[in-house]
């Protein structure tokens, strides 16, 4: 992967995110990696990604502990991929989470917003 200048996704990269499954990687306090698919991952603007944290398990705990987030989308046939690294802000039942979820139920998923700090292609 080649690190790209800037922290804004191009329109083509945003479209690529919209049409491929995203995988989120984090690390715990001991440096142990955790990776998993995030079907709800989407681009909210050229500098931010968002997903719904439904399980509130490993990735959630790692992000709450200060882990950076790495997100990759890939297309195997074309050997095309985009990876972003960034910092996460977790919205737990606040006004932003309520706006995204459409209600203020405690059962709603948390909303995680990732601010893009690096883009690789």
What are its keywords?
alpha+beta; Pnp Oxidase, Chain A; globular; 121 residues; eight-stranded antiparallel beta sheet
Overview of this structure, please?
With 121 residues, the protein is an alpha+beta fold. It is 19% helix and 45% strand. 23% of the residues are buried. Strands 1, 2, 3, 4, 5, 6, 7 and 8 form an eight-stranded antiparallel sheet that branches. The chain has three helices and eight strands. The termini are close together. It has one domain (3-120): Pnp Oxidase, Chain A (Roll), CATH 2.30.110.10.
Give me a quick take on this structure.
With 121 residues, this protein is an alpha+beta fold.
Q: Could you give me the name of the CATH homologous superfamily? A: Electron Transport, Fmn-binding Protein, Chain A
Helix content: 10-25%
The major sheet is characterized as: 8 strands, antiparallel
Radius of gyration: 14 Å
Based on Cα principal axes, name the global outline: globular
The overall strand count is 8
Find the structural class using helix and strand composition.
Answer: alpha+beta
Number of DSSP helices?
A: 3
How many domains comprise the coordinates? 1
Q: Any idea what the CATH architecture is?
A: Roll
């Amino acid at each position: 992967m080649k690190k790209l200048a800037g922290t804004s996704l191009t329109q083509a990269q945003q479209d690529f995110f919209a049409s491929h499954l995203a995988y989120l990687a984090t690390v715990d306090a001991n440096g142990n990696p955790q990776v998993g698919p995030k079907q709800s991952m989407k681009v909210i603007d050229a500098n931010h990604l968002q997903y719904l944290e439904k399980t509130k398990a490993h990735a959630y705990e790692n992000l709450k502990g200060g882990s950076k987030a790495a997100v990759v989308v890939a297309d195997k046939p074309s050997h095309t991929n985009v990876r972003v690294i960034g910092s996460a802000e977790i919205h737990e039942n606040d006004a932003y989470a309520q706006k995204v979820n459409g209600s203020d139920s405690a059962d709603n998923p948390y909303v995680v917003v990732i601010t893009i700090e690096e883009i690789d292609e």
